Amino acid sequence: MGYGPMGRCAPLRCGLAAAVIAAVVVTSLAEAASRTPPPLPVLPVPTAAQLKWQRREVIMFFHFGMNTFTDLERGTGREDPATFRPAALNATQWMDAAAAARASLVILVAKHHDGFCLWPSAYTRHSVRATPWRGGRGDIVREFAGAARARGLDVGLYLSPWDRHDERYGREVAYNEYYVAQLHELLTGYGSVSEIWFDGAKEKNATNMTYHFEEWFQTVRQLQSSINIFSDDGPDVRWVGDENGSAGATCWSTVNRSMITIGEDGIGKYLNTGDPRGKDWVPPECDVSIRPSWFWHKNETAKPLSKLLEIYYNSVGRNCVLLLNAPPNTTGLVDDADIARLREFRAAVTAIFSTDLAAGSTATASSERGAGFAASNVLDGSDDTYWAPTSEDGRRKGGYWIELRLRPADGAPAAFNVVRIQEHVATGQRVERHEVYVDGAAVVANGTTVGHKRLHRLAAPVAGRTVRVWLASRRGPPLVSAVGLHLDQFAASMM
């Protein structure tokens, strides 16, 4: 209908259609022309691999080796490989531990300080090849990587620089060549590796040895370009400066790598807090074991839930990723009790954060940059959208702020004792000070940095109709991706 001969559009209708199309095009062009561009990044900013790593939040470590059988934490390097007899080793069961904690990345200690290798390295006899396990034909690295990928988990590896077994240790060129050769084995023979772990740990009276870290790092980059490299100074992920699972109350993702010497005494505080003037984006990773020690010992048990939750608040809740160690026992399995504790830990975290009491709120702010940067973005559950104020806010009395007007379903404000604030760190870390007010009254929480995630656990639950977050930043307008309110029903046992 409405078409003339040969199916062509009737002149009047063709003209109307053309006018409608033209109007739509003009409107679309006008909208595009008025769209506000995002603010410039504040350098440095994370790489895509670093950003993916940060959003993991909880990852897993597995310490297993000769120390498991000798009941030591630091082996001598003179252990007899014949004592390595994990009769029931099952790497798939290890992944049950990772799944219990809902980790997305698992890191295996492929070689600890005793020099014993969990894969049949061609460059040493001190490996699983010399053991009775699997008749000397086993490869724990291969079983670990295969089990992880079967569960959809990414793989990481730790290769200790300090080696108390190898006779080349102490001969600078010879040992560094040996170390690089083993890097080649691990990074070419076991598929994609998402993180590789280096440290500078060794005893003060250990043999003097110069590690060629830069050569190692560049070798790693050449073999796997998207990997994250961990060490005291990164270059991608840094040590947090302690093994307690606790970052500084101030925690910048930025440092100056030139100020850090791997393994040097006295760098812990700098690593713990980071540097607001840092030129390098090297966020911290909090490594801690669920047990008192890194390796399994019969007389030890897992930390209580209250301690694991405290660690979570002090790591993930302070702009870090939590690397939680679960050591397999002498049979080659993670203790059932340890897996149960990890499952209890994850269930508690889920219970706390699965309900956001700020959901359904109305968000207002000191200003909004324009279309696409509304205050309401902090409530949409996405890390990729964010509220951006205008730069003028920072020069006005009152500064930057965002406020949530809560809408409880039954009309009564719900009580909360956890405040969650998240920056859009993809464009840099900016917030250097912040305060949280309820109903315009006294401050209920305050702090310095925010970063990827800042969690404030209040001394007692509070309730109100408005929650305002005030922010200070000299590095450009703060960009906030989320503000959430939660009730931690486990808090009484943690305080």
UniProtKB/TrEMBL annotation:
Its EC number is 3.2.1.51. Residues 82-344 form the Glycoside hydrolase family 29 N-terminal domain. The keyword Transferase does not apply. One of its GO terms (molecular function) is alpha-L-fucosidase activity. It is found in: Secreted, Extracellular space, Apoplast. Keywords: Apoplast, Glycoprotein, Glycosidase, Hydrolase, Secreted, Signal. InterPro entries: FA58C (IPR000421), Galactose-bd-like_sf (IPR008979), GH (IPR017853), Glyco_hydro_29 (IPR000933), Glyco_hydro_29_N (IPR057739). Residues 363-473 form the F5/8 type C domain. GO terms for biological process: fucose metabolic process; glycoside catabolic process. Pfam families: Alpha_L_fucos, F5_F8_type_C. Residues 1-32 form the signal peptide. GO terms for cellular component: apoplast; lysosome. Belongs to the glycosyl hydrolase 29 family. This is alpha-L-fucosidase.
